[in-house]
Write a structure and sequence with these properties.
Shape: globular
Radius of gyration: 25 Å
Strand order of the largest sheet: 1-2
Order of helices and strands: HHHHHHHHHHHHHHHHHHHHHHHEE
Structural class: mainly alpha
Distance between the termini: 47 Å
Number of helices: 23
Strand content: under 5%
C-alpha cells in the first residue's frame, strides 16, 4: 500500500501546492508601534490648532483691554501665518541636518517661550512679539509632523496615520474653544492672558514625549545609518517582507547599492539638503514639476475656500447670523469645534478604505453646496430689517455642515497627499514650500477678511469662497492621481503627465496585480503567494 503522505510531493521531492496556498493573504493587523509614533508626533499639531483657535475668543477681550482697532485685530489674527513661514522654511533644512524628531522638539521649545510671552504681554507690541515666537514654533511642527508620519508609516495604513496631524490641529482648536469659554468668566485683563499662556503646558509635555520616538527610517538611510533604519522598519512595517522591500526602495532612492548590508555606509548622494532647491524650482523633472503644482495647488485652494476664516471669525459670523450674546457665541464655537473634530476622526478611517480622490471630490462638492446656501442665507439676513429665526438657525446648520464636509475630505487629505507625493530627497523642502503657500494664503485672508466683508458684504464674501471651491473641484479632478496603497517610492511614477495621469495609473495597477499573483519558491520547496503593498 502506497504511503498517502507521498502523494503530497511532486516527482522532484518538493511539496505540491495545495488550494490553501492560493488563498488571498490575510490582512495584517494595524502596527501598534507605528500608530503610537504617529500619534505622538502628530500631537505637536495641537499647538498650532490651539494658538490659531484661541484668538477667535480672546480677540474681543484683548480688543477691550488694550483698546485696539479692528485693523489691529485683523493684523493680530492673520500675522501668525506669516510668522510661521519663518519656522516652515527653516524646518525643512533643519530637519535634513538634525533629523525629524529633534526639529519637532525645537519647535515645541520655541512655542513654549512664545506662549509664556503672550500670557505676560502688557501692550500690543509685547503681544505681537510673543505671537511671532509662537508662530515660528508652530511652523516647525506643522511641516515636520506630517513628513515624519508619512516616512514612518507602512503603505497599508499611511493615509490613516498621516491624517493624524490634521486630527490634532482640530483637537487643538476644540481645546482652545473650551479654554475661551472657561476663562471668559475671569476679569477681562486676566481672562485673555490665561487663554494664551496656558498653551505653554502641552508644548513642554510634547517636547519630552517626542524624544522617546525613533528617527525617520528614510532620514536614517540618507545619513548612511542602515542598521538603525532596518530596526525602525522592522518595528513599523506590517510584515518582514514589507520591511525588506521598503528598505530596498529607500536605499535605491538614496543611491546605496542593494547588496550593501553594512550598518553604517558612506552616502554618495546629497544627504543634508544640498542642491534640493535647484531640483525643486530651477530644473525640476516633469514628474517633480507636476508634484509641486499638485502640492502647492491643494494647499492654496484649501485655504482659499475660507475654512480658517470661519474658524477664526466664528463668533462674528454667528453674531451676524443673529446670535447676539457673547456667551452663546462662544458656546456655538464649541459646537463648531466638536463637529470639526468628529468628522476629521471619521475621515481617518476612510482614507485607506475608499482613497484620497473619492473623499476629496465628495468633500469639495458638499462644500460648494453649503457655501452657496450660506451665502444666500447671510445675504437674506443682511437685507432683512428684523431677526428672522428660521434663517438664523439655517445659517448655523449650514456653517456646521460646511465644516463637516471640509473635515471629512479636504482638511485631512491635503496634509496626507502633500506629505506622501514628494520624492525622498525633496520631501522636507517640498513640504516647506507647500506649507509656506498655505500659511501665506491663510494669513492674507485673515488679515483682510473684516475689510473684505465690509466692502462686499458677508454674503458676497461667502459667494467668493463658493467660486473658489468650484475651481478647486475641477483642479482636483483633473490633476491629482490616486495614491492609496502605493509605496512612497512608487508614487513619483504617477506624476509627470498632468491631466493624462490615468494611463500611468492603469499600468501601475496591472503591475501591482501581477505582483499579487507572483509565486515564490522557498528553500524548503514550499510554494507561497506573496503580496506587496
Amino acid at each position: 500500500m502506497a504511503d498517502p503522505k507521498g502523494e503530497q510531493y511532486s516527482i522532484s521531492g518538493q511539496p505540491r501546492a495545495t488550494i490553501t496556498d492560493f488563498d488571498p493573504p490575510k490582512k495584517p493587523k494595524k502596527n501598534v508601534f507605528a500608530i503610537a509614533c504617529a500619534v505622538l508626533a502628530s500631537m505637536t499639531s495641537i499647538l498650532l490648532g490651539y494658538d490659531f483657535g484661541v484668538m477667535s475668543g480672546a480677540a474681543s477681550f484683548i480688543q477691550e483691554d488694550l483698546k485696539l482697532s479692528d485693523v489691529q485685530i485683523e493684523i493680530m489674527n492673520g500675522i501668525i501665518c506669516f510668522y510661521s513661514l519663518v519656522g516652515s522654511f527653516a524646518a525643512g533644512r533643519t530637519s535634513d541636518w538634525i533629523g525629524r524628531c529633534y526639529t519637532v522638539v525645537l519647535g515645541c521649545a520655541i512655542f513654549f517661550a512664545g506662549a509664556l510671552l503672550m500670557g505676560f504681554a502688557t501692550n500690543f507690541s509685547f503681544l505681537m512679539f510673543g505671537h511671532f515666537v509662537a508662530g515660528v514654533g508652530c511652523g516647525c511642527a506643522l511641516v515636520i509632523a506630517p513628513v515624519y508620519t508619512a516616512e514612518l508609516s507602512p503603505a497599508s495604513s499611511r493615509g490613516f496615520l498621516a491624517s493624524f496631524p490634521e486630527v490634532f490641529i482640530n483637537i487643538g482648536i476644540l481645546l482652545s474653544y473650551v479654554s475661551n469659554y472657561s476663562f471668559s468668566k475671569l476679569p477681562t485683563r486676566l481672562g485673555w492672558r490665561f487663554m494664551l499662556g496656558v498653551g505653554a503646558i502641552p508644548s513642554a509635555m510634547l517636547a519630552v514625549g517626542v524624544l522617546s520616538m525613533p528617527e525617520s527610517p528614510r532620514w536614517l538611510v540618507m545619513q548612511g545609518r542602515l542598521g538603525e533604519a532596518k530596526r525602525v522598519l522592522d518595528k513599523t512595517s506590517d510584515t518582514p517582507e514589507e520591511a525588506r522591500l521598503r528598505l530596498d526602495n529607500i536605499k535605491q532612492a538614496a543611491g546605496i547599492p542593494q547588496a550593501c548590508t553594512d550598518d553604517v555606509v558612506r552616502v554618495t548622494k546629497r544627504s543634508h539638503g544640498e542642491g534640493v532647491w535647484k531640483d525643486l524650482l530651477l530644473h525640476p523633472t516633469p514628474s517633480v514639476r507636476h508634484i509641486l503644482i499638485a502640492a502647492v495647488g491643494i494647499h492654496f485652494l484649501q485655504q482659499m475656500s475660507g475654512i480658517n476664516v470661519v474658524v477664526l471669525y466664528t463668533p462674528r459670523i454667528f453674531k451676524m447670523a443673529g446670535i447676539k450674546s457673547s456667551d452663546n457665541q462662544l458656546l456655538a464655537t464649541v459646537a463648531f469645534g466638536l463637529v470639526k473634530t468628529s468628522f476629521i476622526l471619521v475621515a481617518t478611517f476612510l482614507l485607506d478604505r475608499i482613497g484620497r480622490r473619492m473623499l476629496l471630490l465628495s468633500s469639495v462638492g458638499g462644500m460648494i453646496v453649503t457655501l452657496g446656501c450660506l451665502s444666500l442665507g447671510l445675504t437674506f439676513i443682511d437685507h432683512s430689517r428684523g431677526k428672522v429665526m428660521w434663517v438664523t438657525i439655517l445659517c448655523i446648520v449650514l456653517v456646521l455642515a460646511y465644516v463637516a464636509f471640509f473635515s471629512i475630505g479636504l482638511g485631512p487629505v491635503t496634509w496626507v497627499y502633500s506629505s506622501e507625493i514628494f520624492p525622498l530627497k525633496l520631501r522636507a523642502q517640498g513640504m516647506s514650500i507647500a506649507v509656506a503657500v498655505s500659511t501665506f494664503t491663510n494669513g492674507t485672508l485673515l488679515m483682510t477678511f473684516i475689510s473684505l466683508y465690509k466692502a462686499i458684504t458677508i454674503g458676497g464674501a461667502f459667494f467668493l469662497f463658493t467660486g473658489v471651491a468650484a475651481v478647486a473641484w475641477v483642479f482636483f479632478y483633473t490633476m491629482l492621481p490616486e495614491t492609496r496603497g502605493r509605496t512612497l517610492e512608487e508614487i513619483e511614477v504617477l506624476f509627470g503627465k498632468y491631466c493624462k495621469w490615468r494611463s500611468t495609473n492603469a499600468i501601475l495597477a496591472k503591475t501591482s496585480e501581477d505582483d499579487k499573483n507572483k509565486e515564490v519558491v522557498h528553500v524548503d520547496g514550499s510554494i507561497k503567494r506573496i503580496r506587496y503593498s
